[in-house]
Design a protein that fits this description.
This protein is α/β, with parallel strands linked by helices. The protein is built from 11 helices and 14 strands. Bound molecules: adenosine-5'-triphosphate (ATP). It comes from Nonomuraea turkmeniaca.
């Protein structure tokens, strides 16, 4: 579908609905002092996707999100959110940018009631219903009356996401939602993101963790120092990289010979293992040929390229997970 962009802040109704939940063209932010945080960014986030916005710390993710939410003015470029300018899209967008401040001595439900009350567009009479729905959506109904300070890290973050879901949202934007969480909390948030997406909400989620994006997202964009390095479905991002077959064996030289005879490319004998490009070869046939040649096969694995391999291949650099 063709994506239509509006000038940032263009009036409501100036463009027909876009096929994409978020579109940016040449979106740029240069902070005072000359630093470019986001450099000519062209993003296309399909509706219904869980879109991972991936990059090391400082690569421009938060600045991009703040521009999309109308919190920071772009220096140049255009963007649209749900086919609208940020101001007009905002009621349909839930966002978690900096963790909301909750009162430790109030319950989860009471905290959300306070949040809801701060929204001047929300109807007062239906506040309880909205809070109950949001709590249910994040799986906190049973803990609604429990004090916030007694919530686990995962529950606290789920409550923060509930605050972003007070009201019908077509798009949920989450900036590093698993930052600072323990493994259990990380799993809870990951599962919740998938559930929210399954209900039809587009989720745009930033992270500096490659594995997390791979596990949670259907699509990803990779950022590096303010520039977009690549974007697409997780499968298409990885498809440019070749899969390898790795044979673990004490007979390294013999195994390498067999793989070469079979016509596999880039055969590399190593310490107790040989790798080669899999190409169009069937792993079970490779195994049969090795065994037929008397090679003692201890293990045979097909190693698919990870997003990290893609990142390294595109930038020539490792991905510093700690930023
Ligand atoms: N208000 C500001 N004034 C000046 N420079 C800023 C400002 N906000 C961000 N930057 C700089 O812009 C660059 C991008 O920062 P940004 O926070 O967008 O990156 P990020 O990928 O979200 O990283 P992190 O996860 O650490 O927040 C960084 O070099 C940062 O120091």
């Amino acid at each position: 579908m063709t994506a239509i962009t509006l000038e940032a802040g263009a009036p409501f109704g100036a463009a027909p609905p876009s096929g994409d939940a978020i579109v940016t063209h040449g979106l740029t932010k240069r902070f005072r002092g000359g630093q470019i945080a986001v450099d000519a960014l062209d993003l296309a986030v399909p509706r219904g996707s869980v879109f991972g916005f991936l990059g090391p710390n400082g690569s421009g993710k938060t600045t991009t999100i703040r521009m999309l939410l109308g919190l920071v003015a772009p220096t140049a470029g255009t963007y649209s959110v749900l086919g609208l300018s940020a101001a007009h899209a905002l009621p349909l967008v839930g966002a978690l940018v900096e963790g909301p401040a909750f009162y430790p001595y109030l319950s989860g439900a009471a905290n959300l009631m306070r949040f809801d009350a701060a929204d001047p567009t929300a109807e007062r009479a239906t506040a309880k219903r909205r809070v109950a729905d949001a709590l249910e959506r994040v799986g906190l109904s049973a803990a609604a009356g429990k004090r916030y300070r007694n919530y686990s890290l995962g529950m606290r973050q789920r409550l923060a996401i509930a605050a972003a879901l007070l009201g019908p949202r077509e798009l949920l934007i989450l900036d590093e939602p698993t930052n600072g969480l323990d493994p259990q909390g990380t799993r809870e948030v990951r599962t919740l993101v998938k559930e929210i997406a399954a209900d039809g909400t587009t989720v745009f989620v930033s992270s500096h963790l490659l594995a997390e994006i791979e596990q949670m997202c259907t699509h990803a964009a990779i950022m590096r120092t303010g520039r977009l390095v690549a974007q697409g479905t997780i499968a298409s991002l990885s498809s440019g990289r070749v899969a390898l077959v790795k044979v673990e064996t004490p007979d390294v030289a013999d195994a390498a010979r067999t793989l070469g005879t079979l016509g596999l490319a880039d055969v590399r004998p190593g310490n107790g293992a040989v790798t080669a490009e899999l190409g169009g070869h069937a792993p079970e046939k490779i195994n049969a040929a090795l065994v037929g040649d008397g090679v003692a096969v201890r293990g045979l694995a097909v190693v698919r390229p990870s997003l990290e391999d893609v990142f390294v291949g595109l930038t020539g650099e490792g991905f510093d997970v700690d930023g």
